[in-house]
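sorry for the late reply, my laptop died twice this morning and i had to redo everyting from scratch. anyway the thing you sent over, i finally got around to it. pasting the sequence first so we're on the same page, its 180 residues, then the predicted structure underneath. double check i copied it right bc i was rushing
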Amino acid sequence: MSRIIPFIAISFLLYSCIPLRIAPSIDDYKITKGRKFKKGLPKRKMFIFEDPKDADQFYNYVNIKFGLNDENVYDDVPFEIAGQQYFFSFYEVEIPTKTINLIPLVIDGLLDSADMDPILEDAHASRIGNWYIAIEAYADFDRDCLQENSLSREAVLKYLRAIKREYLSTHNYNEVVFKN
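ok and here's the structure:
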């Protein structure tokens, strides 16, 4: 019995994957500094939510909803709240979950020690992508509308939550034009 326990432990170890990076899970949305969430994003506070749809779907949604005709869709998208002009920019961001797979690593190590070429190099690590939409909001009178001390924060958050809800619930974005 005492020899079986180490064998089982080694078996579990070899069949496991060791996570190197785990993509964040966001239930509804998150407000955080862009650069803190992912390098390359602006330093401003951002409204971030998971995007379960295919690539460029949010682009298509914004393009159709705001009638942008494929011009300046990512930057300076205008919207209005209570007679005040605001703008938003958005980023489609991927954060992959990255793991090391031990079995292919051990097999290739054994092949290498036998002076043979490795056959499972592509399987040493696996990546599963998670996509997010990150939106920053600003105005001529307010550089960062999502900052805690911004007077327009609550109104802009309410608007962005409505945009998120509409985007996730709409499949044919031309329907959005008729809702407006």
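Residues 86 and 140 are 8 Å apart (CA to CA).
thats about all i looked at so far, will dig more tmrw
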